[in-house]
Amino acid sequence: MLKAYSYNEMVMNVRQKFDLEDQSVNVGLETAALDVCRGCKVEIDEEVWPLMRMSLDEVTVVVSGGDSTAGEQGPALASGLCAPIRETSEEAAEGWQPMEDEGQRTMDVQTSTPALGKKLPTDFGWRLNTFLEGNEDATSEASLPRKNDSEEEFNDECREENEEEPITPSAITPTRRHTVRFATEEPQPTRDVRLEQPNTTQDLEARFQVRITAHPDQNAEIKTRGKHLVKKVLAAICKTFNLDYDRAALYLITRDETTDSQTGVHYVRCPPDWSMARCGITSMSELRVQLEPLPESAALVTQKSK
Fold it and tell me: Biased composition, Acidic residues: where in the chain (predicted)?
């Protein structure tokens, strides 16, 4: 399971992983792993998830409501990239002695997140089209400075519990928590596909529009030609989004139907020296820019230069 970009997608992935398809079951996220939490459990909602996701190493999934036994299928958690450790069932009432945790479920997941760039300027389409039209024969690669990610600051205040009237044990809904630990981020796996060359010269000269995404908050539709080289288009995108060209790669997003009637998403890397038409990119194509790790040799040279 990947660390999702949006809060709703993350909740949906958690429901599928823990078999919580019943909508009467409430699923929430919280964390106490960040320094600003100061040991307090802080609820994560849809507004703060885009800001906190880059700093989170793990989250706690809070399950309440519905059938108290929902989502407790241990064997299902042993598949894929997660490993069941233990499960927790908590019930609390004033005057009761707290019960010891029966356990927690922990699973390691792999994530893949394209690096953040600058806010997309309003004249992005005009600037990028001008770059492509004015430099159709240019083959030199751009060397761009790397953007330093600024640290996000979060509210470190913990809400105090309000004093209420004593609650009877029968009025309490059982709550279960599962800890989801995120692994070190790695590049998203790609699928090898066979790319066909265009059949006619018209495919190379025709202008068409494609959608390019560098981040969920940074995307645009641009016009290009089939004869443009991938590295030329990539250089223009990196300049606009302020991305490191030496690490950037262009991916073609493809979708297909799986055996269980679900849509599978695949990312196909486009070779820099290939033309857009040779990569099979058309007006209906969806593209993504992703930063790849530097090779060890290049990383050593960069450190020595500093």
Answer: 150-166
Asked if 274 contacts 195 with a C-beta cutoff of 8 angstroms, the reply is: yes
Cα–Cα separations (whole angstroms), residue 211 to 163, 237, 251: 53, 12, 12
The pLDDT score that the predictor gives to residue 120 is 46
Residues 87, 93, 97, 98: what is their CA dihedral angle, to the nearest 10 degrees?
30
- Going by their DSSP bridges, the two strands 175-182 and 106-109 should be labelled as parallel
pTM of the model: 0.34
Flag the least confident range among 226-230, 264-268, 284-288, 291-295.
291-295
Total residues belonging to the chain = 306
Tell which residue, 117, 114, 115, has the closest CA to residue 242.
Answer: 117
Query: Which DSSP string corresponds to 33-86?
Result: -SGGGTT--EEE-TTTHHHHTTT-SEEEEEEESS-TTTT--HHHHTSTTEE---
Ranges of beta strands (E only) in the chain are: 26-31, 42-44, 58-64, 82-83, 88-90, 106-109, 175-182, 207-215, 218-225, 248-257, 263-269, 286-291
Which letter, b or e, does each residue of 43-62 get, where b requires 16 or more Cβ atoms within 10 Å of its Cβ?
Answer: ebeeebbeebbeebebbbbb
Q: Helix (H) and strand (E) counts for the chain?
A: 7, 12
Across residues 77-98, what is the average pLDDT? Answer: 45
Closest CA to 120 of 261, 215, 12: 215
Q: Which of 30-34, 69-73, 229-233 has the highest mean pLDDT?
A: 229-233
pLDDT 10s digits, 173-225: 566 666 666 555 444 444 444 444 444 444 677 788 888 887 767 777 778 88
Domains in the chain, start-ordered, CATH in brackets? 7-113+173-182 (no CATH), 124-143+187-294 (3.10.20.90)
- Reduced to 3 states, what is the DSSP secondary structure of residue 173? coil
Residue with tokens 């994530």: 111
**Alpha carbon distances (Å) from 177 to 7, 78, 87, 155:** 18, 17, 7, 23
